[in-house]
């Protein structure tokens, strides 16, 4: 990545630039990825987030896709998301939630070095200031903590940023890697394709991970 920020305001424009709170005024209590993709993500969390962790799920909703045992095996699970109504339905949040639109205010409402892991599911494509958000993720992570950004190929096209809609899956992962590069303070990132392998039965959502560890 070049030393200077290579993107323009147009790259982060959206066909529907209206306030996102209006878009989420009515709860969307549905999965945004199909069941095999959810299962792959849940298993990834099970294998890669240690017990007794403090976890924050950003851009969260009524479900965080964590394993069922996490509320009992983790120290705390907190979340922030745009819809307080959706978050109220999330029964895995042992640490509570804060309703907040990160496009309106990219500051996370948590103290420094509060979490061991931060997750974000299929939502970074909607952020108009992703580097500011990832700087906040860095701030709230403890040294050696990790951020796990998962991504598929579905989105609300009117709300995704313009350049995202022009990219393929590999380019999306490279873009997320770039966001983390410009946020600073993370070890070299790792990317994983955790797409479920199934017969051709109608399930088609890929699932990718970008994981970054905060430098110690």
The amount of beta strand, in percent, is 15-25%
Secondary-structure arrangement, i.e. CATH architecture: 3-Layer(aba) Sandwich
CATH class: Alpha Beta
H/E topology pattern: HHEHEHEEHEHHEE
Q: What's the Cα radius of gyration?
A: 16 Å
Count, helices: 7
**In the CATH scheme, what's the topology name?**
Rossmann fold
What is the 3D shape?
A: globular
Structural class by sheet pairing and helices: alpha/beta
Strand order of the largest sheet: 3-2-1-4-5-7-6
The helix content is: 25-40%
Number of E strands = 7
Tell me the name of the CATH homologous superfamily. Vaccinia Virus protein VP39
Regions with little confidence, pLDDT below 50 for 5+ residues: none
- Tally of distinct domains: 1
Distance between the termini: 23 Å
Question: What secondary-structure arrangement, pairings included, does this model have?
Answer:
Blueprint (H helix, E strand, L loop, with lengths): L19 H4 L11 H14 L5 E5 L11 H4 L2 E6 L2 H5 L8 E3 L15 E7 L8 H11 E11 L10 H4 L3 H15 L6 E4 L14 E6 L3
Parallel strand pairs: 1-2, 1-4, 2-3, 4-5
Antiparallel strand pairs: 5-7, 6-7
Structure description:
This protein is an alpha/beta fold. It has a single domain, classed as Rossmann fold (3-Layer(aba) Sandwich), CATH 3.40.50.150. The chain is built from seven helices and seven strands, in the order H-H-E-H-E-H-E-E-H-E-H-H-E-E. Helix 5 (130-140) links the parallel strand 4 and strand 5 (141-151). Helix 5 (130-140) packs across helix 7 (169-183). It is globular. InterPro entries: Methyltransf_11, SAM-dependent_MTases_sf. GO terms for molecular function: S-adenosylmethionine-dependent methyltransferase activity. It comes from Fragilariopsis cylindrus CCMP1102.
